[in-house]
Amino acid sequence: MSTLLASTIAIGQNQPGASGQQQPNMPNQQPMNSGGMGPDANSMNQQATTDKDFVKKALEGGTAEVELGQLAQQKSQSEDVRQFGQKMVDDHTQLGDQIKPIAQQMGVKEPKEPSKKDKQLIARLGALSGSQFDEAYIQAMVKDHKQDLKEFKDEAQLTQDPNVKQVARQGTGVISQHLRLIEQIAQNHNVAVDGKSKASSSAK
């Protein structure tokens, strides 16, 4: 205590004029400053948890997109749908490879399979073929990519982790491109998306 007191006095003496007189009040203010950091620390912890959830979900979603893309190549009789499926395999494999090291650093365990919801979708589409498969696949891809785009955009804006921010921004660009492609394919196949047919989509 005596050493600390001597240091405090020495610091106070080194401060010119009025600021030196304010110095004795500083120790009393320190706990308030520390307490003021509490909410920031909590919000940082919450964001870190959100980042982990995002990374895990992105990996799960990417795995599903790859499996669905492979299914499209097997089941579809349309060249544009098969090509889109191949693009899903290539792009989401690449995006997943970029996310995996970040997940490892964050302590996020790499999911070995898609989410339960995506597994149900894969099973449902796996039972279809031809034009029935195309319609169901196109509708699912439009819906999924709209949702994914929102989540990636939100994460890119909110995260403070530079690695997560970079991959979220990159993913936003990739998913935006995919969404434009699949919406064009939906029009070409006259597949209703969000209750809109080719005609109503063209009239926009």
- End-to-end gap: 76 Å
Strand residue percentage? under 5%
Number of helices: 9
**Biggest sheet descriptor:** none
Fraction of helical residues: over 70%
Q: Oligomeric status of the shown chains?
A: single chain
User: Could you name the ranges where pLDDT drops below 50 across 5 or more consecutive residues?
Assistant: 1-12, 29-38, 197-204
Overall geometry comes to elongated
Radius of gyration: 27 Å
How many extended strands?
0
Please explain how this structure is put together.
The structure is a single chain. Helices cover 82% and strands 0% of the residues. The chain has 204 residues and is an all-alpha fold. Helix 4 (38-75) packs parallel to helix 6 (116-126) and helix 4 (38-75) runs antiparallel to helix 7 (130-158). Residues 1-12, 29-38 and 197-204 have low confidence and may be disordered.
Which SSEs are present, and which pair or pack?
Elements: H1 2-14, H2 17-22, H3 26-36, H4 38-75, H5 79-106, H6 116-126, H7 130-158, H8 162-188, H9 198-202
Helix pairs in contact: 4-5, 4-6, 4-7, 5-8, 7-8
A few lines on this structure:
The protein is 82% helix and 0% strand.
